[in-house]
C-alpha cells in the first residue's frame, strides 16, 4: 500500500526524545478497527491481535459489537481504563476529536494512519501542526499522520498491515510497498527486521528522532532509510554519523534540483543529488539507488567483517567469470593486483597446471576434480598480506544444486562441495577479512551454507562487487565497526552578525579577516583614483566593474593591463560601456604560475551550508570538475577533495609547471567555508578563482549572495 507524500513539517522538536511509549507501550487501542478487509483498520487490528499475550489490545469501532471475533468499544473513553498507544485510523473530519480523546485517556503514543493534512495544502498543514503541538504539550509522541503504521518485532508490537520477519534491520520508510519488496529481497540472505516505521508526514516524530532511537536499540544492527525529504538534513547526517552502527539510505528525487537563481557558479553547479551524496559521504552513510542495492549492502554489512584496503583477489572457476568480476571490482573502486611470487607458488602447490595464479585466480576445471580446492584457495588468499578482501565468482553451488549440475546434491561432487563450503566458512570465521560470492546457483545448499556463515552470495556480480565496497573502511574512518565509517563532521560555527553589505569589497574584507589572502587593490570611481593607485603599485593590473554578478561574461573584467596608461584607457572604455558606479583596480597575479580553483558555499534549506571545491576560472561550468562536502570543511578534508578531482594531476605540476602548494589552498578553503557557514544570512558565498601557487594561495575574486536579495545590487 502506498500514498502520496506530504511536504515535511519543520517545527523544532527536542534534540533527544523518549520513544519507549511508541515501541513498547503498556497497552494498545486501534480506533477504526473493522471487519471490512478493504479498510486499513482491519489490517492493523488483525496484526495487533497476533500478540494479545504481550499487552492488552483494545479494538474501537463506533458501532461497537465485535471486530475480528473480539468485543469492540464504541469509543476510547468507553474502555474505562488508560491506554498506552492509540492507532488512529478514522476519517479526517474526526481526526482531531480522536486525538483529543486519546490524550484524555492517557495515551503517550499515537500512530496516525489518517490522511488528508499537509499533503493537501495550507489548510491541512495548519490542522496537522495544531494537533502536533497539542500532542507535544501533553508529553506524548505521534507518528504521522498519513502513515502506514509501525512494527517492533523485539517487543511483539504489530501495528502495520503486514508481518515482517525478525532480524536486525530497522526500516524507516516513506513507502509501505518498499518494505514489502525489501522483505522479499532480504529472505535469501537471512535478513529481517527489528523495527518498521512508516514515516508519514513527520508532524511530530521525525526521521532524525527515529534514527537516534534506533541507534540506542540493541536489537537493531543496521538502520535502513527510504526518504524523499529529510526535514532537517543536517541533523539527519549528524544522527547517522554518531549512530555507531551502519546507516543505509535509499533516497529518491535526487535528480536535477528545482529551478534556482544561478547567482553564482556554485548555485549553477550544485544539485540536490550532489548535496545528498556529500552529506552521506561525510556522515558515513551508505547511499544506494535501488532496493536491490540496499539489500546487497545490508547483506554484506551483516557479516561483520571489514576490509581495511581496496586490494581484492578475484577467485573463479571460469575465465569469463573472472574477467567480468575483475571489471566489476575495479568499477566499484577496487584494485585487482597481480599476486606476488610467494602466493602464486603456494597456489601452484594446491592447483593443477591449467590453473591461472596471478589474479584473477582461476581453477580452470580443478573444481570438478576436487571441490575442496575452492576452500584451499580461499584460505591461501585470506592468509596473504597482499589481499584485503576476496571476491569469489562462478559455478560454486552447481555441484550441490537440486537441479543436478555435475553430480547433484546426492552425488560425490555435491557432497564434497558441501564440505568445501563448510571449510570456506571456517576459514572466513578465522579471518578478519571479508569474502563475498557470486554464484550461478545462489540458492544451492552449499551457497546457503556460506550465507549462514556470514558470507553473502549473490546471483549478479555487480551486486557482489557493490556489497564488497560497502564493507571497506575509509582511510579517514574513526569507527571501523561501521560499514562506511565516518570522519568527524565539522560542527557548524556559531552564527555571525548579519552582513549589512554583501558587495565585492565587503566580502573581501570578511574573508581577509579570516586569513584569506587577496592581491593589493582599491575601489575607485574616478580616473584620478585610477592613476593614484597605479602610481603606488607595480603592474600589470586588473580592472573590474562592481555591479555585475558574472563580470567576465559581460565584459566587466580586463586583465594584464601593463601600466598606468593602459589601466586608464581600459577604465575609460569600460565606464563608457557599462557606467558602473565603481570599479576595482588590483595587482595582477601570475596565472601561469598556478592553478585556478573555485571554492563556493551554497546554503541548502535541508542540509545547511554545502561546500563546493573544484577547478575554477572562467571555464568552471564547462569543466564541471567539482567535489562537495558539508560546510565548514577542515583543511585535511579540503586537501582530500582537491586530490580527488579528475584534474588533480595539475596540482602536482605538468609539462614543466611547478607543483602548487596544496596545503595552502586547503587552508584557504577551510577559512572560506568556515566564514560562509557562519553567515546564516547568505544564500551563497564564492571565491573564483582561488589561485593555488607554488607557495601559498591567493583569492582573486569573491562574491556573496544574500538569502533575500536587495532591491539594488552593488556587485
- Shape from CA axes? flat
Number of helices: 23
Q: What order do the strands of the largest sheet run in, or round the barrel if closed? A: 3-4-2-1-5-6-7
Per DSSP, what share of the residues sits in E-state strands of 2 or more residues?
A: 15-25%
Radius of gyration: 31 Å
End-to-end separation in angstroms reads 53 Å
What share of the residues lie within helices? 25-40%
CATH architecture of the largest domain: 3-Layer(aba) Sandwich
DSSP strand count: 29
* Overall number of domains: 4
CATH topology of the largest domain: Rossmann fold
For the record, what is the CATH homologous superfamily label of the largest domain? Answer: NAD(P)-binding Rossmann-like Domain
Quote the average pLDDT.
89
> What does the main sheet amount to?
7 strands, mixed
Multimeric state = single chain
> What structural category do the secondary elements indicate?
alpha/beta
What is the top-level CATH class of the largest domain?
A: Alpha Beta
- Uncertain stretches: 1-14, 255-269, 403-410, 480-486, 710-715
Amino acid at each position: 500500500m502506498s500514498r502520496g507524500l506530504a511536504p515535511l513539517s519543520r517545527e523544532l522538536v527536542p534534540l533527544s526524545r523518549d520513544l519507549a511509549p511508541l515501541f513498547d507501550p503498556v497497552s494498545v487501542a486501534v480506533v477504526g478497527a473493522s471487519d471490512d478487509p478493504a479498510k486499513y483498520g482491519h489490517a492493523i487490528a488483525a496484526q495487533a491481535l497476533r500478540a494479545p499475550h504481550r499487552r492488552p489490545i483494545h479494538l474501537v469501532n463506533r458501532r461497537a459489537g465485535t471486530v475480528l471475533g473480539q468485543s469492540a468499544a464504541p469509543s476510547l473513553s468507553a474502555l474505562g481504563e488508560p491506554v498506552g498507544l492509540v492507532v488512529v485510523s478514522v476519517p479526517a473530519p474526526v481526526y482531531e476529536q480522536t486525538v483529543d480523546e486519546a490524550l484524555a485517556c492517557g495515551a503517550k503514543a499515537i500512530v496516525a494512519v489518517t490522511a488528508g493534512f499537509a499533503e493537501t495544502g495550507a489548510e491541512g498543514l495548519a490542522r496537522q501542526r495544531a494537533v502536533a503541538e497539542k500532542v507535544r504539550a501533553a508529553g506524548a509522541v505521534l507518528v504521522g499522520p498519513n502513515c502506514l503504521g509501525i512494527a517492533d518485532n523485539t517487543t511483539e508490537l504489530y501495528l502495520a498491515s503486514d508481518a515482517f520477519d525478525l532480524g536486525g534491520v530497522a526500516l524507516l520508510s516513506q513507502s509501505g510497498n518498499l518494505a514489502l519488496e525489501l522483505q522479499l529481497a532480504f529472505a535469501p540472505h537471512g535478513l529481517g527486521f527489528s523495527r518498521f516505521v512508516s514515516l508519514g508526514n513527520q508532524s511530530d516524530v521525525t526521521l532524525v528522532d527515529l534514527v537516534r532511537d534506533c541507534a540506542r536499540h540493541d536489537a537493531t544492527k543496521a538502520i535502513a532509510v527510504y526518504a524523499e525529504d529529510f526535514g532537517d538534513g543536517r541533523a539527519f547526517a549528524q544522527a547517522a554519523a554518531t549512530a555507531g552502527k551502519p546507516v543505509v539510505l535509499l533516497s529518491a528525487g535526487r535528480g536535477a534540483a528545482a529551478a534556482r537563481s544561478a547567482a553564482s557558479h556554485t548555485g549553477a553547479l550544485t544539485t540536490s543529488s550532489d548535496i545528498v551524496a556529500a552529506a552521506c559521504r561525510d556522515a558515513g552513510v551508505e547511499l544506494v539507488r535501488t532496493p536491490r542495492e540496499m539489500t546487497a549492502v545490508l547483506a554484506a554489512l551483516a557479516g561483520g567483517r571489514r576490509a581495511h584496503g581496496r586490494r581484492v583477489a578475484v577467485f573463479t572457476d571460469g575465465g569469463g567469470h573472472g574477467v567480468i568480476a575483475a571489471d566489476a571490482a575495479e568499477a566499484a573502486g577496487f584494485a585487482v593486483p597481480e599476486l606476488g611470487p610467494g602466493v602464486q607458488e603456494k597456489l601452484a602447490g594446491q592447483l593443477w597446471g591449467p590453473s591461472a595464479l596471478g589474479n584473477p585466480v582461476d581453477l580452470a576445471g580443478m573444481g570438478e576434480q576436487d571441490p575442496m580446492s575452492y576452500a584451499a584457495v580461499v584460505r591461501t588468499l585470506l592468509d596473504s598480506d597482499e589481499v584485503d578482501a576476496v571476491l569469489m565468482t562462478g559455478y560454486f553451488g552447481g555441484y550441490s544444486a537440486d537441479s543436478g549440475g555435475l553430480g547433484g546434491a546426492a552425488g560425490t561432487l555435491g557432497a564434497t562441495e558441501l564440505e568445501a563450503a563448510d571449510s570456506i566458512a571456517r576459514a572466513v570465521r578465522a579471518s578478519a577479512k571479508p569474502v563475498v560470492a557470486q554464484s550461478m546457483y545462489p540458492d544451492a545448499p552449499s551457497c546457503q551454507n556460506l550465507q549462514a556463515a556470514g558470507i553473502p552470495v549473490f546471483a549478479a556480480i555487480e551486486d557482489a562487487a557493490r556489497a564488497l565496497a560497502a564493507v571497506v573502511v575509509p582511510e579517514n574512518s574513526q569507527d571501523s565497526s561501521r560499514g562506511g565509517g565516518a570522519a568527524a563532521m565539522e560542527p557548524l560555527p556559531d552564527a555571525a552578525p548579519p552582513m549589512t553589505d554583501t558587495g565585492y569589497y565587503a566580502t573581501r574584507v570578511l574573508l581577509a579577516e579570516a586569513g584569506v589572502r587577496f592581491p593589493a587593490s582599491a575601489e575607485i570611481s574616478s580616473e584620478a583614483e585610477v592613476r593614484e593607485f597605479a602610481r603606488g603599485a607595480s603592474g600589470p593590473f586588473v580592472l573590474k566593474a562592481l555591479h555585475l554578478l558574472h563580470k567576465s561574461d559581460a565584459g566587466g573584467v580586463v586583465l594584464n593591463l601593463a601600466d598606468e596608461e593602459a589601466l586608464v584607457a581600459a577604465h575609460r572604455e569600460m565606464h563608457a560601456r557599462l557606467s558602473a558606479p565603481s570599479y576595482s583596480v588590483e595587482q595582477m597575479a601570475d596565472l601561469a604560475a598556478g592553478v585556478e580553483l573555485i571554492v563556493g558555499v551554497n546554503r541548502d534549506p535541508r542540509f545547511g551550508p554545502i561546500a563546493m571545491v573544484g577547478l575554477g576560472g572562467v571555464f568552471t561550468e564547462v569543466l564541471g570538475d567539482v567535489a562537495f562536502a558539508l560546510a565548514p570543511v577542515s583543511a585535511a578534508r579540503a586537501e582530500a577533495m582537491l586530490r580527488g578531482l579528475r584534474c588533480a594531476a595539475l596540482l602536482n605540476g605538468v609539462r614543466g609547471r611547478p607543483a602548487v602548494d596544496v596545503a595552502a589552498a586547503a587552508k584557504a578553503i577551510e577559512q572560506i567555508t568556515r566564514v560562509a557557514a557562519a553567515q546564516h544570512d547568505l544564500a551563497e558565498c564564492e571565491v573564483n578563482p582561488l589561485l593555488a601557487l607554488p607557495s601559498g594561495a591567493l583569492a582573486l575574486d569573491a562574491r556573496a549572495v544574500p538569502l533575500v536579495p536587495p532591491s539594488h545590487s552593488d556587485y
